[in-house]
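testing teh design pipeline on a random one, pls ignore if ur not involved
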């Protein structure tokens, strides 16, 4: 093959960058409206369409992702960062309490689409806040709705250590939960209302492993039949005997017993009175029916039953779905408006996973990204020439 000149290489790389960059003009056909673009892509991701298979995990993931973002230094998109100049790669998404976080790829797609239709000034924090709002609406069949405004900036700091220190823990006592929420302006009612998000999504075994072991302390914290059914389901996923503690993979369980199969519910002696057991994946008040039967995965969920005021709210929300819809929406609106500390450095990121680089860092990132993509298409240069 003939030796390439420097000019030829430059031209070749230019053409390849163009081919790999996509076609913004095609995306522009969808219009430039921020809210409609976000909603459309969230709805497609959850429900699918003729060309895209829906993923029921996306909606719950977005709601949880917003909570993780806003709880640590306010809603600044810091949970989306893969690395920062100050924190390296030890960012919030790497925290132990961030196990199972998802929705990042969808946020990337929304950012790319908005940039393609001329809304490149859309912050990643705004995208996440609107995407979570739309996910709550879609999962609830439109029964949960609340207003969200634009104007958030993107943070440049993201620390796994800070996330583990600030996020509520799965074994928190009620007093610890109350303090964590009060520090951000939320009361007991808000704590109970927002916990209703556990009507959807899944939980990794590491987060509820302490609930699987029979003990005198746990005997009154979790329904015994439910505990046995959980342990059996985990063992089934591991394909190991119940007595074996070695794991071959990380099993999960549905947050809501409503979403477990009929046999699991029967083995747990679950009473579904007032719950539509066919509404799998629906964001509704069914969490409270499970909670009041001690059929919840996390000890922190059970702790809500140990405070008189919180217990009253659990009963109230179990019996009044419309009341929960309204209170959950109101609490989510306030969560979405938690602001970063005064004086925090904010920007509008070009890439939701990275802080905006200096020109030199940006050039290195573009080259690194190009080489990675070429590696995946190892024949790209050969095909071109």
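output:
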């Amino acid at each position: 093959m003939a030796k390439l000149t420097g000019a030829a290489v430059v031209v070749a790389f230019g053409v390849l960058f163009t081919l790999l960059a996509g076609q913004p003009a095609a995306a522009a056909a969808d219009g430039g409206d921020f809210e409609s673009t976000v909603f459309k892509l969230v709805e497609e991701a959850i429900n699918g369409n003729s060309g895209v298979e829906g993923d029921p995990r996306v909606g719950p993931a977005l709601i949880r992702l917003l909570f993780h973002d806003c709880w640590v230094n306010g809603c600044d998109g810091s949970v989306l960062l893969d690395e920062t100049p100050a924190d390296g790669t030890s960012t919030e998404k790497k925290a132990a309490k961030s196990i199972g976080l998802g929705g990042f790829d969808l946020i990337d797609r929304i950012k790319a689409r908005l940039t393609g239709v001329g809304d490149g000034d859309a912050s990643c924090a705004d995208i996440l806040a609107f995407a979570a709002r739309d996910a709550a609406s879609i999962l609830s069949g439109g029964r949960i709705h609340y207003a969200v405004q634009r104007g958030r900036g993107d943070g440049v700091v993201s620390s796994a250590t800070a996330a583990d220190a600030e996020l509520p823990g799965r074994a928190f006592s009620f007093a610890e939960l109350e303090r964590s929420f009060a520090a951000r302006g939320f009361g007991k009612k808000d704590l109970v209302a927002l916990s209703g998000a556990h009507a959807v999504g899944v939980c990794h075994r590491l987060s509820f492993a302490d609930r699987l072991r029979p003990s005198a302390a746990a005997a009154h914290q979790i329904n015994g039949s439910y505990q046995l059914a959980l342990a059996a389901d985990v063992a089934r996923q591991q394909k190991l005997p119940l007595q074996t503690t070695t794991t071959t993979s990380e099993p999960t369980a549905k947050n809501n017993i409503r979403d477990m199969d009929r046999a699991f519910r029967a083995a747990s002696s679950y009473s579904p009175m007032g719950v539509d057991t066919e509404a799998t994946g629906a964001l509704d008040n069914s969490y409270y029916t499970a909670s009041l039967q001690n059929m919840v995965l996390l000890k922190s969920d059970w702790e809500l039953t140990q405070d008189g005021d919180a217990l009253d709210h659990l009963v109230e929300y179990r019996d009044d779905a419309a009341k929960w819809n309204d209170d959950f929406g109101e609490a989510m609106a306030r969560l979405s408006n938690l602001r970063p500390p005064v004086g925090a450095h904010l920007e509008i990121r070009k890439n939701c996973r990275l802080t905006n680089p200096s020109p030199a860092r940006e050039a290195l990132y573009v080259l690194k990204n190009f080489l990675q993509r070429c590696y995946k298409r190892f024949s790209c240069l050969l095909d071109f020439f």
